[in-house]
Amino acid sequence: MLHEPRRRSDRRGTRAITGGALLALTCGLLVAPGVAAPAHAAAEPYTQDFETAASPDQAPEGWSVESSDTRDMREGWKGWTFHTTAEVVETWGSGGDRSSFSKGDGLVAVLHSDGNRPTSGPYTPVDSTLWAPAYAVDPGAEAVSVAFDSHYKQGQAPQQARLVAEIDGADPVLVEQFDTNRLDRTHEYSVDLPAGAQSVRFGWQYLQTSNNWFWMVDDVVIAESEPADVAPTVVSGVRPVATAGSAITVSLSGLRAGQQIEATLGEGGTVAGVPPATAEGTVSFPVEIPAGQQPGTLPLVISGPGVAPVTIEITVLAPAGEDAGTTEPQLWWDGFEAATPEWQNDGDAAWEYLDRAASVDAYGTDRRHTFTRASGTFAVAESKLADFDGRLTSAPLAVAAGDELELRFDSHYLVRGGGEQAAAVVAVFDDGTETELVRFGDADEESAQPRIPFAVPAGAESVRFAFTFSALAGAGSWRIDDVEVVRPLAPLADDAVPTAVVDVFSDVQGATARLQNNVLPGLRGLSPAASTIVSNGDQTGSGTVSQYDAYLAALNAGAGDHYTTRVSTIGNHEFYGSNGSAAYIDRFLDRTEMRALGAEGADPARGGLWGEVLVDGELPLLWIGSEFHDYPSQTGSGPFVELSDQQFGWLRDRLAHWKAEGSPVLLATHHVFNDSVSGTYANFYRGDYGMDTARIEALLAQHPNVTILTSHTHWAPELNDWSVEQRFDPTAAHGPTIVNTAAVTTQYGPSGDWGETGIGGADPVGLRVELFEDRLRTTAYSFAAGGAATAIKHIDVALPAERPVDPVDPVDPVDPVNPAEISLNGDAVDAGGSLTVSGAGFAADERLGIELHSDPVVLGSAAADASGAFSKSVTIPADTTPGAHRIVVTRADGTSVAAAITVRAAGDGSGSGDGSGTGSSAGGSGAGGPAAGDSLASTGAAGTAIAWGIGAILLAAGAVLALRRRRAAE
Predict the structure, then answer these.
(1) What is the pLDDT of residues 760-777, one digit of tens each?
(2) Same domain, 198 and 82
(3) Are the C-beta atoms of 239 and 695 separated by less than 8 Å?
(4) Element at 95 (helix H, strand E)
(5) 160-199 burial, b for 16+ CB within 10 Å, e for fewer?
(6) Membrane-crossing residues (predicted)?
(7) Given CB 3.0 to 4.6 Å as the disulfide criterion, which of 535, 608, 648, 821 pairs with 589?
(8) What's the DSSP call for residue 785?
């Protein structure tokens, strides 16, 4: 057994192994601080203070350092070395917490990466492990403890630090993962030993460092100890998600072989049939969720003899139900998720069915992993190892002659090696007709979604789609997923007028001049003018008061204060400082005035981080935000988001409400979802939602009616996956659409496999979201100096095909014999101009009020004649914001009818309605929103309804009143 003289024993003494949370190993070894001295005769403790290190790169006797690729590091500082803390400060400076290792005394073991790696160009990250000598244990020893002083600062992904244990020369097992700052601390852990163990060797691993921070270690004490209660590690998901009536599997590790645990679900419900732990210390068992369980959280408590209790919070969601139809009917979809996909493989080589992990394992990265559109299993044609010549053909789809349809599929096409390759998609009809729909060329098309129109020829009754790929060995590859056929939306009419408009920008981060002089003038110059704007996070660089002052000054100077409603979401940069999470949240809410828009009943300390407004009385806009981020510990790395049960429950209930009403929803959140829009495959953008990832993705999977705006990455909208339909559930035919807002400041694009690079000279980017009768259109614009706007691209998201009645506020039926309706003498009017409002189907002599919405302005009143009809000329106020509005006629009983009108800037038109169209609406209950039967004459769809329930009308009225009160308060 190796022992070092106990230097400084009068100062240090033998360490007591006390305190701390229990930890476990996935291989069945227990890790537990807080252990007593063993009952049997124990081996003498081993101590090391590193004072005997002969030079910076020579470890004390018995210790060793294993490193890889340290060639770019400074001499004397390659991998783990041995220096005094004074030498660390003298060499690298006192900033960045280097000088605060008060527990370190004399020589310490140190790995310093900051400023000690290349900042650009190709290089391999460093791995370095500091190994203690093997500690020999006496027969019968049940556990070994290790204690040490530590000064660790976390760097950005993929850098990580770990304490591992090697028992009797076997593969190292994890004792502790260090993934946040742990500065100037003493750590103490215990590791269970298998029967007959003879020695333990501990290692301090600093892995994948790439110009990150540091780790310093001193005063190591290793000793035998008694086993402590185990704390099982949950390996099946820290916050699992289930639906009522379903079952989930819970898997644990870190138990002792044969140990029996007990599991209790909710209020005393014992989970039956839990087996004892395996020889490896693992156990898995099913947990059934009661069929009548209401949505919410359900605690599962793990306990038992020798087990420290662990609680797993299970998020229970309502069953998803069937997908509603959309205004763009989907005739067929296949996501390759079946155990045996119904596709025919022909040719000399067969397409494979792999998921992303299996694809990378089989063929490596080289941009194969950036297929972010893919969900679950996808089809792969790969020539890396051999020639490929194969044809993958779908099952037949019934079609009708003359049908005008569209084929869509997720596609990841890579050209490699200079060898010849070719790819094409062919429609094969049962009448013998074959039509080549698309051919791929000699350029990469990463993570794209081709949308290919095709017509069904006369006489054809079915079609199959053949995907052909041929390439020489060492050439490229093709991956496809989510193949579907839809009856596409018709082209949007040139004169179509949106019923709701939202402007969006994000990621200012100090680029206030661009915001003031480019983005805001550009958005304000678009027509029609929006009344609502969303600033989707990272308004500042680090959340300081002066940065908020500069941001708000630019926002107002750029006419941002002309928007009736200004919604701001909190980003990661709002937390970037050392004042504490709560202080940054308070500052954000106060400076952006978001408290006034917070969800009703929200925690006052967080009110405004999440909420909802009804844009122009038509489009529900929801937003969510992180309730905690510890920047000093995480040094800018994720996860960035923590959602309380209150916020999550609010989002769950509001999404359920709008889904039941058949409404599209716009959801703003600064942070991104793994493998979704551009760049989210990169390490830095993974795991933004941390432990909340599973439950929020499961929730959003149930709501394909939601369009999600995410920011954070700054990746350019020119990329193919600027927007994606995200199937969080790979078996679902539909998923929510996610759109990347890009950024006001620097745009990024890919660099190598995992990195990113700035795109020089890229104009700042903003979005406009517009609701039309059959689609929600999001358009990305770049803005030159002075606000000159250039449309980059747009995405149209189909709307739910039916809008069911609001279950909370049912619609009073319209009298089919004598419905009330109104009409206008035109579909557009100048601000300050006049308009004639006419109506019929009202009660005789009924008194009526006439208003301009969505910010209600009283235009006048009228009285119906003996036949229930009226006609009234009204004047539109000269200061009315140009854009989409509604004329609302309120009846004596409080119900209302409405018709759409576009208000032009003064002087743009004749100053009055032009008589070119008529808007009409049948009566319903509730004021302030469009009643069933509204028409938008400017689309040419006179008499066509977007059939909103009266519950939506009441909600619109509430939103309008709230906005009116807010404006009055301002």
Answers:
(1) 878 899 999 999 999 999
(2) yes
(3) yes
(4) none
(5) bbbbbbbbeeeebbbbbebbebbbeeebbbbbbbeeebeb
(6) 945-963
(7) 608
(8) G
